[in-house]
Write a structure and sequence with these properties.
Helices cover about 10% and strands about 35% of the residues. It starts with a helix and ends with a strand. The chain has about 100 residues and is mainly beta. The chain has 1 helix and 8 strands; from the N terminus they run H-E-E-E-E-E-E-E-E. The strands form 2 sheets. A 6-stranded antiparallel beta sheet has the order 6-7-1-2-5-8. A two-stranded antiparallel sheet has the order 3-4.
Length: about 100
């Protein structure tokens, strides 16, 4: 994750945006069978790499982010913007698009 940390210092999301790195998809089934690349499901779990400062509501009050760097989150199957930097793949989501925050 050191590569992700150096990229996170250079990319600062704006407003309620969250930069995440998806977990690697499973390459073997529970029975030990190799899963071909085309049949692998897109990972729905991700680690938060960088977060924006939050947004302002209709009355102008600041609304802080509910996720922090290092949190594990569940993402929707589709959506977000894909970013590739230095061989690493990241996705940018709005905080409202994140499905859930996972506790340890």
């Amino acid at each position: 994750m050191s590569g992700a940390a150096s990229i996170a210092r250079r990319i600062v999301p704006l407003f309620d945006r969250v930069l995440v790195q998806r977990m690697a998809a499973e390459t073997r089934s529970k029975g030990g069978i190799l899963i071909p690349e085309k049949a692998r499901a897109k990972g729905m779990e991700a680690t938060v790499v960088a977060v924006g400062p939050g947004y302002r509501n209709e009355t102008g009050n600041h609304v802080p982010m509910s996720v922090q760097v290092g949190d594990k989150v569940l993402l929707p199957e589709f959506g977000g913007n894909k970013l590739e930097m230095e061989g690493n793949e990241f996705h940018m989501f709005r905080e409202t698009d994140i499905v859930a925050k996972m506790n340890n």
